[in-house]
């Protein structure tokens, strides 16, 4: 299958990794928002640099959660410590928050989106998914196409796009 490669990702810096998401004035669901000691956390990037309306950040790492609670207390950011590892969690967060934009970097659990009813994706205008193997990629492609998204791809330096990369889904 031909996949349109839009760019290459060489670092974990949010601008390089997620800069294609147009979050200005939008509600963002950031699945896997954990801190990275080397770069700006994605919630900060989305709110401060890209002017998102609000961000719900979900990560299972207690260190990240504690860091956000101590260092990044702003009214338009809600940190939640949870592991998104079951379809019920996807239904909960997509259904309750009804995000405009979704950023997903949840280390393989993205494959679960395949079981999500497309009605949960109705509010989503753009979605960025870091996938971790070919079966995850194919599952995500299938679900996003079913929900009416156009797709483009960002590959990681030195990796085949079928192995790992970032899938960008957007509605026209």
Question: Any chance you could write out the topology, listing elements then pairs?
Answer:
Elements: E1 5-9, H1 14-18, E2 27-31, H2 42-49, E3 54-59, H3 62-71, E4 77-81, H4 87-97, E5 101-104, E6 126-131, H5 134-146, E7 150-156, E8 165-170
Parallel strand pairs: 1-7, 2-3, 2-5, 3-4, 5-6
Antiparallel strand pairs: 6-8, 7-8
Structure description:
The protein is an alpha/beta fold. The chain has a single domain, classed as Rossmann fold, CATH 3.40.50. Helix content is 27%, strand content 26%.
Features:
8 strands, globular, alpha/beta, 172 residues, Rossmann fold
Q: What is the assigned CATH homologous superfamily?
A: Vaccinia Virus protein VP39
Distance between the termini: 22 Å
CATH topology: Rossmann fold
Number of helices: 5
What's the rounded overall pLDDT mean? 92
Question: Considering DSSP H and I runs of 4 or more, what fraction of the residues is helical?
Answer: 25-40%
Radius of gyration: 15 Å
Proportion of strand residues: 25-35%
């Amino acid at each position: 299958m031909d996949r349109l490669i839009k760019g290459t990702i060489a670092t974990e810096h949010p601008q390089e990794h997620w800069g294609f998401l147009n979050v200005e004035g939008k509600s963002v669901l950031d699945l896997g928002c954990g801190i990275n000691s080397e770069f700006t956390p994605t919630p900060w990037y989305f709110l401060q640099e890209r002017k998102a309306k609000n961000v719900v950040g979900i990560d299972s790492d207690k260190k990240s959660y504690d860091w956000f609670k101590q260092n990044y207390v702003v009214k338009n950011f809600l940190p939640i410590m949870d592991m998104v590892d079951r379809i019920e969690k996807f239904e909960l967060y997509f259904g309750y928050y009804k995000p405009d934009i979704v950023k997903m970097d949840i280390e393989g659990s993205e494959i679960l989106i395949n079981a999500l009813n497309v009605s949960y994706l109705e509010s989503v205008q753009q979605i960025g998914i870091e996938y971790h193997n070919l079966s995850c990629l194919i599952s995500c492609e299938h679900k996003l196409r079913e929900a009416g998204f156009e797709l483009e791809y960002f590959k990681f330096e030195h990796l085949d796009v079928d192995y790992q990369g970032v899938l960008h889904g957007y509605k026209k």
